[in-house]
Design a protein that fits this description.
Elements: H1 8-23, E1 57-59, H2 60-67, H3 71-80, E2 86-88, E3 91-95, H4 96-103
Antiparallel strand pairs: 1-3, 2-3
């Protein structure tokens, strides 16, 4: 196999020498890293169900459809405070719990 004429091999050898000088010869290990002792892998514990902290939300249009009213009416209810809402970026969203209160 013919070596490259660009001097790449010499550059690599020089870089290895610099690393060996900086880290010491003990830091250079060309072989695979093998653990000193074998540690068997145990069976992972069963996953547990966690209660979700997420809340269901609907856009103003989706809330209006569920309530059977217009989006303007929902926007007026949000503006007056009769219907609590949240801002998700530039979108106004209504928690589903608030709709449940209105429907009952």
């Amino acid at each position: 196999m013919r070596r490259s004429r660009s001097g790449q091999h010499e550059k690599v050898e020089q870089a290895r020498a610099v690393v060996a000088q900086a880290l010491g010869e003990a830091a250079r290990r060309d072989g695979p890293c093998v653990a000193a002792t074998y540690i068997p892998i145990t069976k992972s514990p069963e996953p547990t169900q966690r209660k979700s902290e997420a809340i269901g939300v609907l856009t103003v249009r989706e809330a209006a459809t569920r309530l059977g009213i217009t989006t303007g009416e929902v926007e007026r209810m949000v503006a007056s405070g009769a219907l609590k809402s949240l801002m998700a970026g530039w979108t106004v969203v209504v928690p589903t719990s608030e709709l449940a209160k209105l429907q009952s």
